[in-house]
C-alpha cells in the first residue's frame, strides 16, 4: 500500500523540464526545417571563413548521441547553444555579418521559463559585438527578445595570441508555456566590422538558457509532503 501511494504521488509531481518533442536546430535555418537536436555549418559567409554548430545541450559535440526521436531528454535547465563557433575575416576589405542559430521544440509540460543569454570565448581586440536573440511561444503569440553590445578591449588580456577573452550575460524575463506549445528560438551574434585577419572564437557558447521558474501549486506541495510522509513512516517502521 505504501509503495503504491508513493508511486501515485510521484507520478503527479512536475515532470523534468528538459523533456522536449520534435526539435529542430540549425545554422541560418530561419524556416526551422533542420529536424533533430544538432545542426552544423562550415564554409564561407560574409567574406569570412565560418564554422559553428547549433545544438541542444546534452547532445552537443562530444556529448550524447541523439536517438531517432521525436522526444529527447535534454539537459535541465534547457540550454540551446551556438557552439564551436569560429570566424576569421578572409577579405582585404574587412567583413561584417552575423551568426544565427535557430531552434524549435514542442513543450511536453507546463512551465514558466526564465530566459537568459550568455556568451564567452575570445575575439580580436577592439571589435564591437552584439549578442542576443528571440524566444517565441508560437501557440500564444507571446515573445521575449533582447540584445547586448560587447566592446572588446583594445589590448590583449588572456587567451590566444592577439585575442581578448569575452564573457557577458543578461536576462530576458519569463515566458509561460503549456504542454503542446511550439517554442521558437533564435540565438544571434552580430559582428558589424571585422578587419582583415581578425577573428572571433566561441568554443562553448553563445547560449540561450530556459530555467523553469514556476512555483508548484498548493496541491502539488501537498502531494510532495505526502510523499515525504510515506517515506518517513516507512523508515520508522523499519527501524
What brief labels describe this structure?
2 helices; mainly beta; single chain; Jelly Rolls; disordered N terminus; 6-stranded antiparallel sheet; 239 residues
Low-confidence stretches: 1-16, 217-239
List the helices and strands in order. Answer: HEEEEEEEEEEEEEH
Q: Which CATH class is shown?
A: Mainly Beta
N-C termini distance = 19 Å
**Inertia-based shape:** globular
Rg result? 22 Å
Give the second-level CATH assignment, the architecture.
Sandwich
By DSSP (H or I, 4+ residues per run), the number of helices equals 2
Residue share in helices? 10-25%
CATH topology: Jelly Rolls
Offer a concise description of the structure.
The protein has helices at residues 2-12, 218-238; strands at residues 19-27, 38-45, 48-56, 71-73, 78-89, 95-107, 111-123, 128-137, 142-151, 164-177, 182-194, 199-202, 207-212.
Describe the protein's architecture and organization.
The chain is mainly beta and 239 residues long. It has a single domain (17-215), classed as Jelly Rolls, CATH 2.60.120. It has 2 helices and 13 strands, in the order αβββββββββββββα. The strands form 2 sheets. Strands 2, 3, 5, 7, 10, 12 and 13 form a 7-stranded antiparallel β-sheet that branches. It has a 6-stranded antiparallel β-sheet with strand order 4-1-6-11-8-9, with no helix packed on it. A hairpin with a 2-residue loop joins strand 2 and strand 3 (48-56). Helix 1 (2-12) packs antiparallel against helix 2 (218-238). It is globular.
Amino acid at each position: 500500500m505504501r509503495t503504491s501511494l508513493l508511486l501515485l504521488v510521484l507520478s503527479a509531481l512536475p515532470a523534468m523540464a528538459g523533456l522536449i518533442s520534435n526539435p529542430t536546430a540549425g545554422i541560418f535555418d530561419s524556416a526551422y526545417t533542420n529536424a533533430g537536436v544538432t545542426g552544423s555549418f562550415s564554409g564561407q559567409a560574409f567574406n569570412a571563413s565560418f564554422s559553428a554548430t547549433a545544438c541542444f545541450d546534452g547532445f552537443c559535440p562530444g556529448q550524447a548521441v541523439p536517438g531517432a526521436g521525436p522526444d529527447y531528454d535534454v539537459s535541465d535547465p534547457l540550454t540551446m547553444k551556438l557552439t564551436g563557433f569560429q570566424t576569421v575575416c578572409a577579405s582585404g576589405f574587412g567583413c561584417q555579418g552575423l551568426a544565427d542559430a535557430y531552434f524549435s521544440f514542442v513543450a511536453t509540460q507546463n512551465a514558466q521559463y526564465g530566459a537568459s543569454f550568455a556568451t564567452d570565448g575570445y575575439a580580436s581586440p577592439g571589435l564591437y559585438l552584439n549578442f542576443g536573440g528571440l524566444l517565441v511561444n508560437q501557440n500564444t503569440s507571446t515573445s521575449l527578445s533582447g540584445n547586448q553590445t560587447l566592446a572588446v578591449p583594445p589590448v590583449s588580456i588572456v587567451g590566444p595570441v592577439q585575442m581578448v577573452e569575452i564573457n557577458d550575460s543578461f536576462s530576458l524575463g519569463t515566458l509561460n508555456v503549456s504542454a503542446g506549445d511550439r517554442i521558437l528560438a533564435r540565438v544571434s551574434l552580430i559582428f558589424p566590422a571585422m578587419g582583415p585577419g581578425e577573428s572571433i572564437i566561441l568554443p562553448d557558447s553563445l547560449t540561450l538558457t530556459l530555467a523553469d521558474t514556476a512555483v508548484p501549486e498548493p496541491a502539488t506541495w501537498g502531494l510532495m509532503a505526502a510523499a515525504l510522509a510515506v517515506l518517513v513512516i516507512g523508515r520508522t517502521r523499519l527501524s
